[in-house]
Design brief:
Arc Repressor Mutant, subunit A; 0% strand; 178 residues; mainly alpha; Rna Polymerase Sigma Factor, Chain: A
Length: 178
């Protein structure tokens, strides 16, 4: 009789070097990971590639799973982050000349991780209500894909200020778009 290990036990085994256990986690969670990737990208090939990327990231980060929540919740967040990083790098490479067009296509991920695409006019109106500093950092980071060090260099302030401005912008946008 073989015992079926829990997700937590598999994660612990992987973090201690047992890479053979990744197959079990992959079989249990690949459909959920693929579904999230497909829903966020709308592209089958990108979703397949990103699913593989997520499980590669899992190998590196599984040690950070403490078991405070369900493993699937932790993996869902890892998947969302991986796809968002991919989208940011894609948007940055594309460097759309029309900022509002790029914003209209950008997904705003709320705490519920809903898959709504915010209407361009509503987003434009909400962005106009942000203070100029927060708005410019939000656009540079979330739309154009710059990192905090690059933003700090562009505007001549610290990376901490960039992070703070981004946090304020996101918080205000959540309230305005709720």
């Amino acid at each position: 009789m073989s015992t079926v290990l829990s997700d937590y036990e598999l994660a612990q085994a992987i973090s201690h070097g047992s890479v053979a256990c990744i197959g079990d986690l992959y079989e249990r969670h690949r459909r959920m990971v693929y579904s999230v990737c497909l829903r966020m990208t709308g592209n089958v090939m990108e979703a397949e590639d990103l699913t593989q990327d997520v499980f590669m990231q899992l190998m590196k980060k599984v040690g950070s799973f403490r078991g405070d929540s369900k493993f699937s919740t932790w993996l869902y967040r890892l998947t969302i982050n991986q796809v968002l990083m991919h989208i940011r790098s894609t948007v940055r490479r594309r460097e759309s000349p029309n900022m509002l067009e790029a914003l209209a296509k950008t997904r705003i991920v709320k705490h519920s991780f809903s898959d709504r695409v915010v209407d361009g006019i509503t987003l434009h109106s909400a962005l106009a209500k942000l203070p100029p500093g927060s708005r410019s950092v939000f656009v540079k980071f979330d739309v154009e894909g710059y990192n905090h060090e690059e933003i700090a260099g562009l505007y001549g302030f610290s990376t901490g200020n960039s992070k703070s401005q981004l946090h304020k912008a996101r918080r205000k946008l959540r309230k305005l778009l709720a």
